Amino acid sequence: MIFTEDFLHYVWKFKLYDFRGLKTTDGEAVEIISAGTHNFNAGADFQNARIKIGGTTWAGNVEIHVASADWYQHNHSNDGAYNNVVLHVVYRDNQPVTLPDGKPLPTIELVNRIPAELYGRYHQMAYGNQQIIPCEGSIKTVNSISIHNWLTRVLVERLEKKSAGVINTLNMNTGNWEETFYQYLAANFGFKINALPFELMAKALPQSLLAKHKTNALQIEALIFGQAGFLEDDLTEIYPTELKAEYDYLRKKYNLTPVEKHLWKYLRLRPLNFPTVRLAQFAGLVIQCNHLFSKILEENTVAGLRKLFSNIVVNQYWDTHYRFGVESKFAIKAFGNTSIDLLLMNTVAVFLFSYGNHYQLPRYVDRSLELLESLPLEQNYILDDFKALGVKAQNAFESQALLELRQSYCNQKKCLQCGIGNQILSTNRL
Asked: Do 121 and 424 meet the contact criterion of CB atoms below 8 Å apart?
């Protein structure tokens, strides 16, 4: 048998062991009044437990190990954080443990007290030969309400993690939400493949500088393409040469340094997603809408949020180009609904949540979740895998939660910390 402390934590937390006639290794009767609060930080595994040993009720902490000798291997005897441990819970007792004052630490042994069926389900999930996720053979037994409730919690965890990144960037931007939103928006315009150069371009071209030229579309386009590194080459067509002339002037005026052009990638991209086209669309959005984040905070409807990103006007040069200097068949480079949905999901929803969470304003958090519920799910192999197992996302709220579930729980085999895994493991509890 392969036992882990995480599994024993789970068994202890949910009282999934045979507690009838429970005694310490010294023969004293034990009653678990409260298992305590699971501690995921430094110190004992469960805190503020209440344990009756013999005729005395103790309030304190509980430490759990696979073997009692682990107390010394983990150096708890020299750590003051463990002085308040009142009970040692082990799978197998293989060495007496004493506290710093020389008194024996009360210990209970769980060997032969854990149901074989429970361990079998755990072992199958943790060490089986699953192809997709650890519980792929059992997830269909979990009812849809339990799955939805857990996905809601997982989605909030995902947004909280993303929010931490937003706040970190916000602090670097001295609390400027508009500038921070502009940088994230730029990164998401590049999708995954060109997110980095887009982000570097935005950081090298502050929104405050663009605001000085908000009435001059050509200058805004020149600043964006110039800082992206696309105006360093010799250009012969009229529009590109006009951009280059404007940028050369503004570059000297503001002492600007462009991003290196080689960072931009074209490989495996459809022409409509070439970085030059995406930059042209980004420039169109900047020209169309100033102080975008403030407008997002004021807009209460999903339709209104969509409208902020709709009807972006791209310079007509791009109707017959995907790259500078290379003419192509006429095609309007509209910013489509799919692109809008991705920006709403990956940028707007994240910022509404971050803003509401940061200032303790629940209405923005609620708007973030409502926005995700209204957006269609994205398409990728992870969602296809879950669909094959009978778990089908209905919207972006659920699809984002499933992506987080796969990344943070399934891939790391954190079944014991997962609500779905708990539901499967705890079937037929004692």
From this structure: yes
- The stretch 117-122 carries a mean pLDDT of 87
Amino acid at 98: T
- Percentage, residues of the chain above pLDDT 70: 99
d(CA 122, CA 366): 36
The mean-pLDDT minimum among 46-55, 76-85, 374-383 falls in 76-85
Is the distance from CB of 111 to CB of 68 less than 8 angstroms? no
CA-CA distances (angstroms) from residue 373 to 149, 228, 345, 393? 14, 35, 10, 11
Q: Locate tokens 């937390």: which residue?
A: 13
Kindly report which listed range (116-130, 212-226, 325-339, 401-415) carries the lowest average pLDDT score.
Answer: 116-130
Name the amino acid, one letter, at 102: G
Span 324-344, mean pLDDT?
Answer: 93
Q: Mean of the pLDDT values across residues 151-166?
A: 97
Specify the pLDDT at position 429: 41
Identify the residue whose tokens are 């910013």: 335
Name which of 183, 161, 162, 185 is nearest 172 in CA terms. 183
Greatest Cα pair distance in the chain: 93
* Alpha helix stretches (DSSP H) within 289-418: 292-298, 302-309, 337-343, 349-358, 362-374, 381-388, 396-405
| Nearest-angstrom CA–CA distance, 64 and 70 | 9
Which CA distances in Å does 3 have to 73, 105, 337?
Answer: 17, 22, 51
In the block, residue with structure tokens 């068949």: 329
Residue 428, pLDDT score: 44
Structure tokens at 5: 């402390």
The amino acid sitting at 112 is: N
Backbone angles phi, psi at 117, to 5 degrees: -65, -40
Alpha-carbon distance of 280 to 121, in angstroms, equals 54
CB 82 within 8 A of CB 43: yes
Residue 392 has pLDDT above 80, yes or no: yes
Q: Over the chain, what is the mean pLDDT?
A: 93
Q: What is the pTM of this model?
A: 0.85
- 3 state DSSP class of 89: strand
- Does residue 215 surpass a pLDDT of 90? yes
E-only strand ranges, 110-148: none
